[in-house]
Amino acid sequence: MVVAGTFITVEGPDGAGKTSVLTQLLPQLKQHFNQPVILTREPGGAKISEKIRDVILNPEFTEMDARTEALLYAASRRQHLVEVILPALARDEVVVCDRFVDSSVAYQGGGRQIGEEAVLAMNQFATGGLNPDLTLYLDVPVEVGLARIRQHRQNQFDRLDQETVEFHQRVSAAYQRLLAANPERIIAIDATRELAEVTAECLAVLKAKLPALWQ
């Protein structure tokens, strides 16, 4: 595996505002970074991976088994990695990805209670052990995130949005364990603040942690 570029991921519970932050952040990264920047997402990011995303998030598939779900995420991730992420890194580009392995560990390992270590091992197989260089974790309390979802998505809920509060609490707790286990890689950002403040702190963290990228 040839990895020359820089791999940045953005994580957070549902309603953390990742999409909004990334919309504000990406133009600034393209302006200030001295390498090309691409934005991608999971699940999805490549043709086959997007098809798998449609299956995973389909609100009609309520009977989906938890391990089936975890395997589908890993399969989508593998295809995305091979088609998009690894080629971009080999070209010495900066890849910014909306979710990666941490999401599976938190949502399937913690939320679905099928085991965080088991889900991590499955995804290490899928990714060949690739880890992000830096992860920005947009941190919001469960009740804040769920309130945002209800306010902004109206009737457009996917399968995970329909889960119980207890499920989302388990996801949040799993993310906190990931933060504690990876303090150098995962940096928590208070995402309860105004969008401009959150974006500014993300930029400050990126500049402090990855100074070689700035021109």
Can you summarize this structure?
Its EC number is 2.7.4.9. GO terms for molecular function: ATP binding; dTMP kinase activity. The chain contains 8 helices and 5 strands.
Describe the fold and architecture.
ATP binds at residues 12-19. This protein has helices at 18-32, 47-57, 66-90, 101-111, 116-127, 142-153, 165-181, 195-209, and strands spanning 6-11, 37-41, 94-98, 134-139, 186-190. With 215 residues, it is α/β, with parallel strands linked by helices. It has a single domain (6-213), classed as 3-Layer(aba) Sandwich (Rossmann fold), CATH 3.40.50.300. The protein has a five-stranded parallel sheet, with helices on both faces. The protein is globular, with a radius of gyration of 16 Å. The model has no long low-confidence stretch (mean pLDDT 94).
Number of domains: 1
User: What is CATH's topology name?
Assistant: Rossmann fold
Task: Work out the number of β strands.
Answer: 5
Largest sheet: 5 strands, parallel
Helices, by number, come to: 8
CATH architecture label name: 3-Layer(aba) Sandwich
The dominant shape is globular
Protein structure class: alpha/beta
- Write down the CATH class: Alpha Beta
Overall mean pLDDT stands at 94
Distance between the termini: 27 Å
Radius of gyration: 16 Å
